[in-house]
Amino acid sequence: MKVITGVVGNDIHVVANRLIELSLDARGFEVFNLGVNTYLEEFFDAAVETQADILLISSLNGEAEGWAREVKFLKSKYKTLDNLVMMIGGNLVVGTAAAKDIVPRYRNYGFDLVFHQVDLNTGLDTLEEYLKTRNI
Amino acid sequence: MSLLQEEREIILNNEFVDNFDFAEVEEFVRNADKELFISHHFAQKKKMLVQPRGGFPTYEKQFALNEFFVKANVDVLPLTIDSNTRLNDYATAKKMLRLSEETEKDMLNGYPLVNHGYRTTRKMITHFNKPVSLRHGTPDARLLIETAIASGIFEIEGGPITYLLPYSKNFPLDKAFLYWKYVEKVCANYSKLNLPINRESFGPLTATLVPPSITIVIQLLEMLLSLEEGVKSFSVSFSQTGSMNQDIVMGAVLRKMAKYYADEINCSDAAINLVYHQWMGAFPTNKDYAEQLINMSTVIASMVGADKIITKTREEASGIPTKEANAKTVANTQYTLGILNGLPKIVDQEEEEILSLEVKAIMEAVFNDPADTLWRKVFNSIKNGTIDVPFSPHIINHNEMITVRDANKNIRIIKRGNVPIPDKCFLYEKSKCDLSKDTTSIVNDIIHDIGIMQ
After folding, report:
1. Of B304, B230, B298, whose CA–CA distance to B262 is shortest?
2. What 3-state DSSP class applies to B238?
3. Burial B338-348 (b: 16+ CB within 10 A, else e)
4. List of chain A residues whose C-beta atoms are within 8 Å of the C-beta of residue B390
5. Does the beta-carbon distance from A18 to B399 stay under 8 Å?
6. In chain A, what residues touch B442 (CB-CB under 8 Å)?
7. What is this model's ipTM?
């Protein structure tokens, strides 16, 4: 199964990004890591190019929210991405906010799975469960 | 007119530079007080020099910070440059400087040196009459260092590798090499007029589980690139690893190797200094613990025998430190250095031998690259993964090497990627670690290993 991952926007925090790649790899995914400082168009272009099943966006400085608002609009311009599993995780707001407020907001932005300050392995376990339910 | 001088005139003929007077600047450097040259203080070898970090947007605040540092008995003043200037965005820096001046709220994370200009900044530098170190993170620092030297700043930190691989995703590495070649040449030329301008490499790199062999190789290569352009005073550096023994071994090997490779290119007349950075990784949020960590770093720097120590503050975990906190670290560090007497001499021959073999093997692989010049050999070696920096965000970096901490918190290589770590050394490194774990638990270990000081 193919996963595109990377850190969205002008965020240069690279440590978790490398660990996500290692963990996905260990779980048997085929990983395309776009690294830090990646724009939404680059994520979607890569998803088309690789025919990826999953897009896993991460954020540390919280600027994800600014970008996430454009996800639905941008994704609708691509014809082949309807079945792409959309996942986002990390620190999803600038400042502080509770996960119960953040998760519904990000669902509205077009994400299937939302993890705000959740441990990496818990997030990836949840992803694997989710893939089973969708029979992917 | 030489090609270099033509390039200098283009660089300095810039809307943000107010009429750069080459002849006047040369006269200034020629007659500058020796106290301003850190190379002079290194040569005296009186004590380990203490240098904090710090930069504020306005002249007044920078001046006030320096006053605090001087009261705390600082040896070397820092001048940390804001992030817009680092990316050559002088227009934004100018706007933010004006906002900072008008609102008294800091809108920049450092001192916008180019916008202040050398005539203004020189007044501050000569007023305090202490050596100043330029701290930045700029891939294209040509205009910045011209302004710095004209201001009386005679130590320039950075280098094409150490200021690029930890800080940038896609600034072209080959361009960085050429821009830094200019920096070296300008430093070398000014060094002929008075005491040498000191160049310093930034050894901490990503400060995240970088193994000693990679740090040392990059220090040596930036040193060679600098010396071959005629620089006569150079500082190699590294930051606290998390294991006292590994720090001591690393310091010893780095010093020996620096001398060895400088001799190899007939530059034994150049002074090579060793700089130690207090812990550069994630800091504890508890400020009292942060002070304990800083104190321990100072002890280790003494064990390493560093010529200069660069300090952190108790406020590291919470953002840009206040001038009070910053000066407090300087005073504390000076106190600790003053009472540290009768240090034992520790030599770990086995570790030194393993590390030396690793460094030599990587250096040999770099030199064996078929390219015609050293910078191209180094460029190719980074591109093909002979040199691989853990946790670099740059697209050219291979990211194939994996490191973890062993039981004594030494950083060990458990996957070498394309880095030519000799088999004997690789087996030794792995023998220190528990390799029976699955990747998920190794990832958890790595997360823990990164945050050991928190």
Report:
1. B230
2. strand
3. eeeeeeeeeee
4. 18
5. yes
6. 22
7. 0.84
